[in-house]
Amino acid sequence: MLDVEKEYAKLGLKKDEFEKIKSFLKRKPNYLELSIYSVMWSEHCSYKSSRSLLKNFKTTGTYVLQGPGENAGILDIGDNQAIVFKMESHNHPSAVEPYQGAATGIGGIIRDIFAMGARPICSLNSLRFGKLDTSQHQKYLFEMVVKGIGDYGNCMGIPTIGGEVYFDKTYEGNCLVNAMSVGLAQKDKLIKSKAFGIGNQLVLIGSSTGRDGIHGATFASDELNEESEARRPSVQVGDPFMEKVVLEVCLELLDKKLILGLQDMGAAGITSSSVEMASKGDVGLDIDVAKVPLREPSMVPYEIMISESQERMLALIEPAKFDEIKNICNEWNINCEVIGTVTDNKLYRIFKGDELIGEIPVKTLTDEAPVYYHKHEKPRYLQNMPEKSLHEEDYENIERKFSNNEIFKKIISSPNICSKKWVWEQYDHMVQTNTAVLPGHDSSVIRIKNTKKAVAFSCDGNGRYCYLEPYNGALIAVAETARNLACSGALPIGLTDCLNFGNPEKPGIFWQFKNVIEGIIKACEVFDIPVISGNVSFYNESFGKAIHPTPVIATAGLIKDVEKITDSGFKDDNDEIILLGRDLNNKSDNDNMGGSEFLEIFFDKVEGKCPDIDIEYEKKIQKTCLELIDRRLIKSAHDVSSGGLAVTIAESCIYGKKGAEINAGLLENNFLKTFYSETQSQIVVSCLPENFKKIEEYCNNEKIPLERIGRVGGTILNINSEINIHIGEIINIYDNNIEKIMTI
Amino acid sequence: MPFDKKPYFGILVFPGTNCETDCFHVLNNILKVRCKYIWHKESHDDDINAIIIPGGFSYGDYLRSGAVARFSPIMSFVREFASKGGLVTGICNGFQILLEENLLPGAMLRNNTLKFICRYSYLKVIDAGNPFTSGYEKGKIISMPIRHNEGNYYIDEKGLIDLKENNQIILKYCNSDGITDASSNPNGSIENIAGICNKKRNVFGLMPHPEACCEKILGSDDGRAVFESMINNII
After folding, report:
1. B22 and A331: CB-CB below 8 Å?
2. CB distance B116–A244 less than 8 Å?
3. Does A324 or A215 have the greater pLDDT score?
4. Which residues of chain A are within 8 Å of residue B117 when distances are taken between CB atoms?
5. A214 and A81, same structural domain?
6. Where is average pLDDT lowest: A579-593, B34-48, B215-229?
7. Is the pLDDT reported for residue A620 higher than 60?
8. How many secondary structure helices (H) and strands (E) does chain A include?
9. Min CA distance, B68 vs chain A (Å)?
10. For position B59, which CATH number holds?
């Protein structure tokens, strides 16, 4: 018999947490009970370090049907339709076993979506790795994560339509894999996960339970170190075919109104899924481990209870419906077993056949779990941060060393800037035939069949900005997703987030976290975008070094008329190119170069201040862009972000396969600052020449500065006669550079 | 088999099939013809007069693509239906199933890139004298999405000569100028072959996804003519 007094620490519990368990139970827990507490109280399941701050998010609004707290959030998009979405991290599993780690991350988030009664219609992801040119290992991680995501989503028949990938040395020992899935549901067919009705039963549908993923939730709540490799068995193994079958079965059961509640089994397996259902319904549950179909008959109860075997769902049913449910599962050749019963005693009781082997009050696992408000303090690295990242002589040095063509080519060939085609061509991004804007543009757009509507998604998060100024970095992350949506003609209506940080027990990290949360709260308030779901991933550290704070924001937008979907590519020769939002007379102290790609490429540093953002002004710019699209005055729109104005213009050329002749005013007579600073709140649009006056008039009324900066046409991109490159050469560099790096 | 004059398509569904609703949408909502799903455990269907085997990952394709699906009960019906001259089109995984079933000659290997490929590809209509591409002009260059792991078509030398002699090669990968060479070959397929038919010209397999490009909003409607050709040629 294992001595629990010696075991609790190994399971990730602290001494005072162990004492708390004893006082809840009024006795020592047995090993099974201890395991259950350890997974339920893990950071991953309990959000014990973040809960106190997350509760301040704005979670309600015009479109919100379901905010955080369920498997996923839900927004009303009219016509009795709703979209359901959430983003989640699978960082640690992917760091030690990238293929399965990423694959099961996708599988998990997809289950969250259909657990709400929605059919998954698309997925997105946000990935971070170390720099590709530093080691083969980073290429290996990148390659296998992309393959894992692709193989899972492709087999499921769910298009992976967009996302983002960044490479920075901060992620070398701890890559980030954040996956988002979106579902479409009939509003009246939505379902929740609450357990209710004394005597109702819990049915396990899907895969058999094996020894994979034991203590995965605990693993996710720890830092990575040399022992992490040994945690590989904690990573689950995915079977997308099984999940596709489980998906079809669950949707059929829902359609036939045979189930009352549905919950996916993710971290902490049967334990967390059933405990959450019981807790939400404020009921008790009896679970019988002897009823669980096993891959290995020798599994002991605690293993069965916390195994994270994939592709399993837990459904709440009336006993009378079981036979019909069983028949449907048989038709698809999958398991379907009653493993639990709803009781009125508010106890979570585990049986093995007739033998009672564990008994815990439900609420002590959830609502009464520990909550921490850690100490926070401005980290030391920020105390000596220089205000300015670059000085005049730095610019002069670069200009002496490189021609403007060379500088431009270095920027657009950076893996952080260039096309991620190598990635998305491995994802089926067209299945279900709704992808109206293919990957690569500001946002990914999915039309809704049999309506005039479309939904758009954009995700973004800049770790460098958040490292320099977490609050402003978070404002920018939210602002940028909304701006991307505006460029596609979509009104932002809700967001999900994945908050990736280091160890929250370190005051500097918790300070970053607190500031990022405050930034998100502020931005959501100004933009009127509610947070409807999300995930926090702490302990993203390797060998004691934390990643840059990386909140990834994914925002959904609604397009009322598919005819008005706009993308970033220039359309026709002779169209006018206009820069919205930049005021050359408005001198700022901030050079907007801190955390920029330019600074990284030419100076290999992350320094200075993060770009300025005036969030109210930003909102006005976005409104203007949306209005111009709605009035059909502009043909393309693309915002300025990583890489700066030159990259924005180049991308519009690349996506339109058009050249352009640009002649823009210079900021402080500095070409590099003008074209490579990452100044916020700027959008490059193109229009028919005869529409310029109307656009100007609108912008003047709204007090939005605008500037004609050039014309579309020809086969050359010419920027202020300083950059002069054939568009074919630009496309070649931009499209193929990642593939080139990956094949070295 | 009594053929109805009106088109009535059967769309086969195996566990793991994932393009059945896309095909249904095109036939039913866009081309306004009758169609229905046929579950793989069915043994026959007397109503339909054309069959689509849609794309996906039947049984997960953990063995060779299509290798398990061919043992489903419905496949003996497909064999019988084809032997009587009924029109059968297999798209992507459906093509792979038809190869495994020997309703079409040759075999499918893994892409020579060793990666899943999803992108638009140019195709040249090599033959228009068949019920599947009669709606295109011979030699026309069209563009359709390809989305597969195993689209590297292979056939032995003798088989290839046969295909050519009987004009069974229907579609080839090419570039925007219609050149079919190694640089316009996405997956290593022999002679850039993207789609073939049987000798009797009533069974058609293709790797590209015509159902994914039947509406301008998706970027192309070049795929429509495949379905329109079938509709116009149903006996």
Report:
1. no
2. no
3. A324
4. 425-426
5. no
6. A579-593
7. yes
8. 27, 28
9. 13
10. 3.40.50.880
Structural domain contains residue B119: yes
Structure confidence at residue B63 (pLDDT): 82
Mean pLDDT of chain A: 94
Q: Is residue B183 part of a domain?
A: yes
Give the CA angle between residues A365, A369, A372 to the nearest 5°. 160
* Claim to verify: residue A328 and residue A249 sit in the same structural domain: yes
Does residue B60 surpass a pLDDT of 90? no
- B2 in a structural domain: no
What is the domain count for chain B? 1
What distance lies between CA B37 and its chain's CA centroid?
Answer: 17
Check whether residue A605 and residue A667 sit in a common domain: yes
Q: Is residue A409 part of a domain?
A: no
User: Closest to A157 (Cβ–Cβ): which among B18, B115, B211?
Assistant: B18
Q: pTM for this one? A: 0.95
Q: Tens digit of pLDDT for each residue in A404-414?
A: 999 999 999 99
Closest CA to A288 of A345, A215, A346, A355: A355
Question: According to DSSP H, which parts of A118-239 are helical?
Answer: 136-156, 216-219
Looking at the fold, whether A499 and A620 belong to one and the same domain comes out as no
The C-alpha angle with vertex B19 and arms to B120 and B209, in degrees rounded to 5, equals 25
Structure token digits, residue A265: 């089994």
What CA–CA distance (Å, rounded) separates A183 from A158? Answer: 10
Flag whether pLDDT at A220 surpasses 80: no
A631 lies in the same domain as A667: yes
Residue B126 near residue B189, CB atoms below 8 Å:
no
In this structure, the answer to whether residues A313 and A436 fall within a common structural domain is no
Q: A246-268 pLDDT, tens per residue?
A: 999 999 999 999 999 999 998 88
- Cross-chain residue pair B22–A432, CB shorter than 8 Å: yes
C-alpha distances (whole Å) from B230 to each of A166, A641, B44, B136 are: 47, 48, 21, 12
Name which of B90, B88, B95, B85 is nearest B187 in CA terms: B95
**B133: in domain:** yes
Mind telling me how many Å the CA of A706 is from chain B's nearest CA?
31
How far is Cα B129 from Cα B203, in angstroms, rounded to an integer? 13
The dihedral sign for the CA sequence A333, A334, A339, A343: negative
Residues A733 and A607 reside in one and the same domain: yes
The count of domains in chain A is: 3
Q: Are residues A159 and A255 located together in one domain of the fold?
A: no
Sheet containing A531-537: give its strands across.
A435-437, A444-447, A454-460, A550-559, A491-500, A531-537
* Tokens coding B188: 């290593």
What does A73-99 look like in DSSP terms, one character per residue? EEEEEETTEEEEEEEEE-HHHHHHSHH
Q: Which of A667, A521, A702, A646 is nearest to A586 (CA)?
A: A667
Q: What is the CATH number of the domain that holds A23?
A: 3.90.650.10
pLDDT at A229 over 70: no
Contact residues of B toward A, CB < 8 A:
15-16, 18-19, 21-22, 25-26, 29, 41, 55-57, 59-62, 115-119, 145, 147, 149, 209, 211-212, 214-215, 217-219
As a whole number of angstroms, the distance between CA A726 and CA B133 comes to: 39
Set of chain A residues whose Cβ sits within 8 Å of the Cβ of B145: 430
- Parent domain of A613: 390-402+567-744
Q: Which of A565, A594, A618 delimits the end of a domain?
A: A565
For residue A230, what pLDDT is reported? 65
Q: How far A431 CA lies from chain B's nearest CA (Å)?
A: 7
> pLDDT at residue A231 above 70?
no
Query: Does pLDDT of A222 surpass 90?
Result: no
The phi and psi torsions of A125 (rounded to 5 degrees) equal: -150, 155
ipTM over 0.90: yes
pLDDT at B1: 41
* Residues of chain A found within 8 Å of residue B26, distances taken between Cβ atoms: 433
